[in-house]
Amino acid sequence: MSGFVFGVLSSLVATALTVLLGWIGARHAQHWPVAVLSRVSGVGIARKYTSQRSASADLAADLAKASEVSIMTGRGNELARENFKDIWQRSNTQVKRIRVLLPDPDGGPDSWLARRETELADFDPGFTPGLLPEQIRANIAYIGALANKDSKRIELRLVDLPQVSRVIITDQLAYVTTVTEARHGHDSPCLVFRKPGPLYDFAVRLFETAWQGASAPRTPTSQATGQTGP
């Protein structure tokens, strides 16, 4: 008899959960197990996305609520797209400081960027030698122009680091994409770490360490950036 009752109760619970998750929506429901385990373990993982591009809408919403933003990315094409356009507006008084770290495109054949370009060419035939640095130079010019017009808020520096992650940090969350050798960044998994938490702190330390070792761009249009302290 107890087995029968347990089976009925289990069915009722399963039905209730199915209805509830359907009401919330599949996109948010997939984060529930991660959030529950994170709260129990204390590591501070807020959300998990199967790809960086699937996190775009939530990232835009979180950027809109931020007062400080730190960005370390491997190429930077996304910085000129819809998700970021609002934070660059000079009329935006919500975001008081934006720091951007991009790879140094002039690091030479032994740089980490050159290694990443070789990886990209192995699975994407469109990546001919020199294309990746050329794309980064265009993004340096874009962010450099923004920084020149709004130097009190926006800072740009260049660094030579392993191309293994994209890190975007606000005063509350850290979006970390783990980039593998056989995928573009936008196709790679993305984790969101919440403050306070050891993984959020690790993302902050990673960025701050890279920022301290970075240098201002050498291009004339962005010499004014990166001159203030971190």
How does this structure look, described?
With 230 residues, the protein is of the alpha/beta class. It has 2 domains: 1-25; 31-222, Endonuclease, Chain A, CATH 3.30.870.10. The chain has helices at residues 2-24, 26-29, 32-41, 56-64, 85-88, 112-123, 131-149, 198-212, and strands at 45-49, 68-72, 97-103, 154-159, 165-170, 173-178, 190-194. It has a 7-stranded mixed sheet with strand order 1-7-6-5-2-3-4, sandwiched between helices. The protein is globular, with a radius of gyration of 21 Å. The model is unreliable at 1-29, 34-38 and 221-230 (pLDDT under 50).
Mean pLDDT score:
81
What is the level-2 CATH architecture name of the largest domain?
2-Layer Sandwich
Number of contiguous helices: 8
The overall strand count is: 7
Q: How much helicity do the residues have?
A: 40-55%
Q: Flag low-confidence runs.
A: 1-29, 34-38, 221-230
Structural class: alpha/beta
CATH class of the largest domain: Alpha Beta
Going by CATH, the homologous superfamily of the largest domain would be: Endonuclease Chain A
Shape: globular
Largest sheet: 7 strands, mixed
Rg, Å, rounded: 21 Å
CATH names the topology of the largest domain as Endonuclease, Chain A
Biggest sheet strand line-up: 1-7-6-5-2-3-4
Number of domains: 2
Strand content: 15-25%
